Amino acid sequence: MTTLDDTIGVLRRTVCALHADLTRYNLVTWTSGNVSGRVPGADLFVIKPSGVSYDDLTPESIVVCDFDGKLVDGELSPSSDTDAHAYVYRHRPDVGGVVHTHSTYATAWAARDEAIPCVLTAMADEFGGEIPVGPFALIGDDSIGRGIVDTLAGHRSPAVLMKNHGVFSIGEDATAAVKAAVMCEDVARTVHIARQLGEPKPIPQDDIDRLYDRYQNVYGQ
Ligand SMILES: [Zn+2]
């Protein structure tokens, strides 16, 4: 029989390993990004500890928090973004993973308070439309979490650019949320480069719908 401790142990290893993807894909500098994952069957999630370098992360160092962002298990303090992750888990029962980064190109769009328009078939596939911008929000209360949830409620996109800040992405699990963060930076870069030489051409909405539907429901093994 699998105990809650076993489940948390597996999730700690998964979320620890996923932080290596943040550095592999150049999404983070110093300790600026974090990954969390919902504990199946419990009102808990695991998240990166605050201020620990990616090279020093171990599964044991990943902390367990409740949906109020309070530390439940672990030696270290949770990430300073824990309240935002907790808010998302509280309000989105469908979300199993949350990622936050300040990845360069996506954050440049956030700095301009500008949504990334859907001008690539890969964007239609993954995001089903534009990647929206959420409100300017300061750390310390629910305003970042609320901004993420409220903005994503009106979009298919699993990623949101928080104004003047950076990217939050969600997924059915932590791996899917990391994928969304990686793809968000990739399309942010491509559309930025496209804009240097002209105005990128929008994709008609019915084609976006067809691409999104095929990719979400048919593509893959
Ligand atoms: Zn941040």
From TrEMBL:
Keywords: Metal-binding, Zinc. This is L-ribulose-5-phosphate 4-epimerase. It catalyses: L-ribulose 5-phosphate = D-xylulose 5-phosphate. It comes from Jiangella asiatica. GO terms for cellular component: cytosol. Belongs to the aldolase class II family. AraD/FucA subfamily. Its EC number is 5.1.3.4. It is an enzyme of class 5 (isomerase). Residues 13-192 form the Class II aldolase/adducin N-terminal domain. Its cofactor is Zn(2+). Pfam families: Aldolase_II. GO terms for biological process: pentose catabolic process. GO terms for molecular function: aldehyde-lyase activity; L-ribulose-phosphate 4-epimerase activity; metal ion binding.
